[in-house]
């Protein structure tokens, strides 16, 4: 017996409903991530910090939908694997780089 997508036990999961809704949620979260990183850039004037914030929030927006059928339905399985295995390593590198780089004098 196969359990329908998005159903665990008797409960339907919020993000795993349909691929179209999951894609819209992911795009919305990416736009919110971009706006937050833009605000960070405007307030702090630090481009590396804004890139770091966008990278972390963007990765989270894909990780929220990692179990959905969106990646399979739209033929972007590579993006699912990238956001699960490679992107967190890039975020760790960005955090280490941002915290250890020499501070520029202005």
Explain how this protein is built:
The chain contains 4 helices and 2 strands, in the order ββαααα. It is mostly helical. It has a two-stranded antiparallel sheet with strand order 1-2. Helix 1 packs antiparallel against helix 2 (47-63) and helix 2 runs antiparallel to helix 4 (77-100). The longest helix has 26 residues, at 19-44.
| Intertermini distance | 65 Å
What's the SSE pattern?
EEHHHH
Overall shape: elongated
Spans of at least 5 consecutive residues with low confidence = none
Main structural class: mainly alpha
What profile does the largest beta sheet have?
2 strands, antiparallel
Query: How is the largest sheet built, in terms of strand order?
Result: 1-2
The number of helical segments is: 4
Query: Mean pLDDT score, rounded?
Result: 83
Describe the secondary-structure layout:
Elements: E1 7-8, E2 11-12, H1 19-44, H2 47-63, H3 70-73, H4 77-100
Antiparallel strand pairs: 1-2
Helix pairs in contact: 1-2, 2-4
